[in-house]
Design a protein that fits this description.
about 475 residues; alpha/beta; 9-stranded mixed beta sheet; 6-stranded parallel beta sheet; binds GDP-alpha-D-glucose; EC 2.4.1.15
């Protein structure tokens, strides 16, 4: 029986080591929940890096054995590979380029070679379990070369690829010396999915300019093989967030937090530490808002969660310092004994705490400079069981294409950001509820399960068409 293989850089598990023993915790990411019903079924399997460097062979064996019972297969990376492939080419070359931070790109041939080598390592790990008619779903920018590598030894397999970050315009993408190889790598897939229509359009334009291939309604002809491209915005596990917002533990936490914080209104900000998320700009907008609206001082606070991420990469270290300085400056200038303008946390929280934050906040500020989709804004909406609350959302987030009832802003326009804060804090409840209801309806319908089903449906559809063509 043909099986489905999910491939992503990280496995949906967090492994930590304590007193020489390994502890395994399932990771709560949206992808893991959405694909849970698929990869745990029958012989299906998820292949990826377990998130830590393990050099000893017997330890690798132990982890492999344990993960097998959870339908996972690890690909182990050496410290040099983590540095050059993951922190290097993936996060210092592709990430800035795909998010239009081109001044941050590191161009380094050694990193490129490590990227090729690790993609090949993934291909070999897949080959060990692959049957000719299997379906393989590859995820994200760390594995752009993988579809073509798989195609070489499994020409009949159904290969799908989804990009979770933006695909840049040709003018940005062309800056990469390895642009052709990267595109050819992606075109090994039968079906390629992107979050938005614009990402898809940019990809098709690069395919046209670099590979000389046109398309007809998203259908490309690659060496007599049909490749389909489409926009498929990723949804969230809506019920999970709605249920967590109603859970007893969440309500208890909310009551506790409220007691410590006091009665002032809350603006919420949650992101991984990343320059693409516009964290310093958000802080500056809040500072300007307090400066221009003295009557709001002591009445509103910013609750800011920054989740540590990629802190071995230079630009991320600099960003962390910039945020620390800004928070220090604003709190230093405006704090009163009974009021802290910014409650800042540089750590991650359990889901119940996150849900309590979503419930408590009158306003969520999701203002990235650039974001493939952004799930935080969708989770905020799903958690608003009383339908009250306002979302301020950046036009540069993929989610803005679906959530047109949010207050949409350009994160580079400080004046607009400051006005949006005022508009959000003074929005009549009736209008808040009307907007919230309409956004909830759409997110409930286009949830993560809908997204997974649609992806699989498209992939099987194009494979079916290919087969029909071959037998003609
Ligand atoms: C990439 C793309 C795209 C955050 N803090 C905590 C916590 N989180 C969870 C959120 C949310 C997730 O992390 C972050 O997802 P985003 O979508 O906002 O951002 P990226 O990590 O950059 O993801 C993005 C996504 O892929 C999917 O395609 O939307 O554009 O960049 O789910 O809830 N979770 C817990 N504690 C925290 O403190 N438990």
């Amino acid at each position: 029986m043909a099986k489905t293989i999910i491939v992503s850089n990280r496995l949906p598990v967090k492994i930590s080591q304590e007193n020489g023993k390994y502890n395994y915790m399932p990771s709560e990411g949206g992808l893991a929940t959405g694909l849970g019903s698929i990869y745990k079924d029958g012989d299906n399997i998820w292949i990826g890096w377990p998130g830590l460097a393990v050099s000893k062979a017997d330890h690798q064996k132990e982890i492999t054995k344990k993960l097998k019972t959870e339908s996972m297969k690890p690909v182990f990376l050496t410290n040099t590979e983590i540095e050059e492939f993951y922190e290097g080419f993936s996060n210092e070359t592709l990430w800035p380029n795909f998010h239009y931070f081109n001044q941050y790109i590191v161009f380094d041939d050694d990193m490129w070679r490590a990227y090729q080598k690790v993609n090949r390592k993934f291909a070999r790990a897949i080959a060990e379990v692959l049957e000719p008619e299997d379906t393989i779903w590859v995820h994200d920018y760390q594995l752009l070369l993988l579809p073509e590598m798989l195609r070489e030894f499994a020409p009949k397999a159904s290969i799908g690829f989804f990009l979770h970050i933006p695909f840049p315009s040709y003018e940005s993408f062309r800056l990469l010396p390895w642009r052709r190889e990267l595109l050819e790598g992606m075109l090994g897939a039968d079906f390629l999915g992107f979050h938005t229509y614009d990402d898809m359009r940019h990809f098709l334009s690069s395919v046209n300019r670099l590979a000389g291939l046109g398309n007809s309604n998203g259908m490309i002809n690659v060496d007599n093989r049909k490749v389909m491209v489409d926009a498929l915005p990723m949804g969230i596990d809506y019920d999970k967030y709605a249920e967590s917002a109603a859970a007893k533990e969440t309500l208890e936490r909310e009551a506790r937090y409220r007691e410590s914080i006091g009665a002032q209104k809350l603006i919420l900000s949650i992101d991984r530490l990343d320059y693409s998320k516009g964290i310093p700009q958000r802080l500056k907008a809040f500072e300007l808002f307090l400066e221009q609206n003295p009557d709001y001082r002591e009445k509103v606070s910013l609750l800011m969660v920054v989740v540590p991420s990629r802190d071995q990469v230079g630009k991320y270290k600099e960003l962390k310092e910039e945020i620390d300085l800004l928070v220090g400056r604003i709190n230093g200038n405006y704090s009163r004994l009974n009021w802290t303008p910014i409650h800042y946390f540089y750590r991650s929280f359990p889901l119940n705490a996150l849900s309590a934050f979503y419930r408590m906040a009158e306003v969520a500020m999701v203002t990235p400079m650039r974001d493939g989709m952004n799930l935080v804004c969708k989770e905020f909406i799903a958690s608003k069981l009383d339908k009250k609350g306002v979302l301020i959302l950046s036009e540069m987030a993929g989610a803005s294409k679906e959530l047109s009832d949010a207050i949409l802003i350009n994160p580079n326009d400080m004046g607009e950001l400051v006005n949006a804060i005022k508009t959000a804090l003074t929005m009549p409840v009736k209008k808040q509820m009307a907007n919230m209801i309409s956004m909830q309806r759409s997110l409930q319908r286009y949830n993560i399960h809908h997204w997974v089903n649609l992806f699989m449906e498209r992939l099987h559809h194009i494979k079916h068409e290919q087969k029909a063509l071959e037998t003609q």
